[in-house]
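Below is how a single chain appears once it has passed through the pipeline. First comes the sequence as given, then the structure the pipeline wrote out for it. We keep one example in the README because the format questions we get most often are answered faster by looking than by reading.
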Amino acid sequence: MSGYMIIDGRKVQYTNQKNILSVIRDSGIDLPTLCYHSELSIYGACRMCSVETSKGEIIASCSEKPKDGLEIYTNSPRVRKYRKMILELLLANHDRDCTSCERTGDCQLQNLAKRYGLTKNRFTQLVKDDEIDNSSPSIVRNPNKCIKCGDCVMVCEEVQGVGAIGFVNRGSDVKIAPPFNKTLAESNCVNCGQCRIVCPTGAITIKNETQKVWDALYDKNIRVIAQVAPAVRVALGDEFGKTPGEINLGKIVAVLKKLGVEEVFDTTLSADLTVMEESEEFLERFTKGENLPLFTSCCPAWVKFAENKYPELLKNISSCKSPQQMFGTVLRESYNEIDFKDDRDTFILSIMPCTAKKAEAARPEYSHNGKREVDVVLTTQELAIMIKEMGINFDEIEEESMDMPFGIGSGAGVIFGTTGGVMEAVLRKVLKNKYGKDDCEIIFNSVRGLDTVKETSVNFDGKEIKLAVVHGLKNADNLIKQIKSGEKQYDLVEVMACIGGCIAGGGQPVPKTITRETRLLRAKGLYNIDKTTQIKNSDDNYIVKNIYEGVMKNKRHMLHNHH
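Resulting structure:
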């Protein structure tokens, strides 16, 4: 469908845009919204995108389809007055203590108030002092800053299929909360943090644990060491004006050293460990025909989802710890003797793209004798906060290399950060020396990309292995239902909770508009690292061999969960 519209006196062609808002934005006008996300259903709650037609009608451009010959005005006196009044009413019912808000300077409501020159508000502040929900190990929910846009409700239901939060009450008493006055910790929340990604204000934020890290860094009796996940290196730069997908690993190492971290290691290495352990586990199950399909265990939000909704499938989930927890185990074993000798404690810090990693590290099975395998998980966004607080010039800081012996990973480990990466890494190990290079590339390409579900099959010693890759928990839920009904049959399934994988995790910097292109750029960044990495496969990483023969000798069982 195509045609022409008249926008502010200019003739503008439209083609396949799904609403007037998209046509307006494609024409170069940044029409404001507070509740619109192109990947969610249209709710039309905020009305900030309203425009005036030549007939004097005020319409919400997000919920109206383009019409040939339609004439609209995006900034008429009526529309401008309308938008300012909406903002005034929202601010009257909003906690305006912006200086102490996690989102100050990055809040869409605050930015629009500034854009429309709202230095005063005619309306009395009516916000109630509702209790802040700090119960979750991953995110904080502040109902006093909620504008009821509904984005968090829609992403939780439509994308994740969890429904941990929803609209409660009616009319002026409406609020967004978990059902039955539960806290987030009491609900079926999986800690994925996607609600935080779409929230336009400070109503849902990452649980900030930077002070714990500062305290450890200031303590001379504590040695702080860090691991950095693959997806962090292609997203942190977003906070400092870099292009999405730009690789900034050297700068990340440098800023961590500047902050006071003594040694910085690469979680890519423990991803290689995961590939080795998971490949072996899969081949054993496949040979015996037991507990198939095998589901990957790297994503803690997916594991929590399965625990909540499909406990009968826990036996099908790989027993391998996630790369984060594997690394925590290896580092604890490596530093026990050093700590005793130096009379210091080692503080293990994880830099992760994922809010659910906070919940994972806090699980009781990952604490031993009162000491956690990973002490604190900081998200990419929290690391950016620390960099800005210390005043480090991210552009000018010189790059540094990872520390040895745990600073080397393979290309297979790097691509763990994107959907399909875990599957491809396992295939590289399992199919090694069984297919030619061109055939392998065809197989690997079949599990790459952002398609909702990717399926393929390979011949392994005369037997067919059926594979599936899925991202987004609602998509995973649909796939599981097909598996349980017998409609689909697989041997190995990779599941990631977030659309696109870890590159779009709940702890990553939030682009102004969440798009497929942003995810593709970040994924491309990881594949570019893979192309330039000398070690392609996990089993070619000599550090992995050294770990097996050294610190984890006779202790490989510690790299696994015991369901």
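The chain has 18 helices and 19 strands.

See the next section for the split statistics.
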